[in-house]
Design a protein that fits this description.
By secondary structure, the protein is of the alpha/beta class. It has a single domain, classed as Alpha-Beta Barrel (TIM Barrel), CATH 3.20.20.70. About 45% of the residues lie in helices and about 10% in strands. It has 14 helices and nine strands. The mean pLDDT is about 95. The structure holds S-adenosylmethionine and FE2/S2 (inorganic) cluster (FES). The site of S-adenosylmethionine (SAM) has 18 residues, from loops.
């Protein structure tokens, strides 16, 4: 194996940081041998903190109605071919209860930026879930809101918030979003969430259109500097009804490589093997664990609406019941020597 790559991997494993040019070389000149060594070091870094325990988050996709028009996203407001839905509070609470019975101790509510979910409506759903499901963390992933709104939702009981920054480079952000959306505002939201006391999840797509290695170096720096408690990274996958329909999908191999690097930069991070990773490769989520991930987020949404929450093409698990998904993932993880935990799975 290339001695410089070996040196960089070992340095990262010990120091948890590299210089920009070193990150650049590590990513740009990567080889399968370097990937193997990185994964080995990443798994070793995770071992004393999380071992081979996999935390699960039950994901309820509460609405595909969105006021935004992110160019890559299948549920963007300009997509007239989406059959829009929103789940009523009672349905959401029932899904959460079902998840609780199945062993989930984190419920994630995710959706488009749908004005129906005012602080009152969303806050009351959060408190009802907290009441119905003891010892359960509630994570929100409902996009950009005001400081006051985040505060109210926190006061209602929300524990964590996922808001991917999408890219650490403002110019790149501008190529992925319409002009009315602002990178600075997204970053401000992340800072607000942190200062309120949420465990914060950031993240980005791997292989999004126009992304270069220089951008990826900035991503690594962002992880170093912001140290998100969770970091959601998954491959970009084109959606046929968006302007990026003909762009290439992000690669499995690069996603796994970056998961390993992120684990080494921030050994305590909660790192999901995403559904998008499972979509581009039938064993993507297993491979994610073996590269250093420690979280999976199976779907708890009612099967009737699952196909409508189509952020990208060919999304997996849209026909399976919640119990089937949990069982399937449990089995998949057991086969590689990992176990799903019945645990809130807090940042340690
Ligand atoms: N509205 C909330 C927000 O903006 O954070 C949550 C929903 S949003 C659809 C969830 C995530 O899906 C985005 O942060 C984005 O990274 C990811 N996503 C959207 N379109 C995608 C695509 N075509 N391929 C892969 N991931 C995608
Ligand atoms: Fe959903 Fe396998 S995880 S069917």
């Amino acid at each position: 194996m290339d001695s410089r790559l070996r040196e960089l991997v070992e340095k990262l494993a010990v120091e948890h940081t590299l210089a920009d040019d070193e990150y650049f070389d590590l990513i740009e000149h990567r080889t399968p041998e370097a990937a193997e060594l990185l994964a080995e070091r990443a798994v070793a870094a995770r071992q004393p903190i999380y071992g081979t325990t996999v935390f699960t988050r039950g994901l309820i996709e509460i609405s595909n109605i969105c006021k935004n028009d992110c160019i890559y996203c299948g549920i963007r407001r300009s997509n007239r071919n989406v059959k829009r839905y929103r789940l009523e509070p009672d349905v959401i609470v029932a899904c959460a209860r079902e998840g609780y019975e199945l062993g989930f101790r984190t419920i994630v509510l995710q959706g488009g930026e749908d004005a129906y979910y005012t602080d009152e409506v969303l806050g009351s759903i959060v408190s009802r879930i907290k009441e119905a499901c003891p010892d359960t963390a509630v994570t929100l992933s409902m996009g950009e809101r005001s400081y006051e709104s985040y505060q109210r939702l926190y006061d209602a009981g929300a524990d964590r918030y996922l808001l991917r920054h999408e890219t650490a480079d403002p110019d790149h952000y501008a190529r992925l979003h319409p002009v009315e959306m602002s990178w600075e505002h997204r970053m401000q939201c992340l800072r607000d969430l942190r200062s309120i006391g949420y465990q914060v999840g950031a993240g980005f797509m791997v292989g999004s259109p126009f992304q270069t290695t220089v951008h990826l170096v900035k991503e690594m720096r962002f992880v170093e500097f912001f140290k998100p408690e969770m970091c959601g990274i998954g491959p970009f996958i084109p959606h046929h009804d968006t302007p990026f329909a003909h762009k290439r999908a992000g690669a499995l191999e690069l996603t796994l490589y970056l998961l390993s690097i992120i684990r080494l930069i921030h050994p305590h991070v909660l790192l999901p093997a995403t559904t998008a990773l499972g979509t581009i490769d039938p064993r993507g989520r297993e491979k994610g664990m073996l590269a250093g991930a420690n979280v999976v987020m199976p779907n708890l949404s009612p099967v009737a609406v699952r196909k409508q929450y189509e952020l990208y093409d060919n999304k997996i698990c849209t026909g399976e019941e919640s119990a089937q998904c949990r069982g399937c993932l449990g089995l998949r993880m057991n086969l590689i020597g990992y176990d799903l935990a019945v645990d809130r799975g807090d940042f340690r």
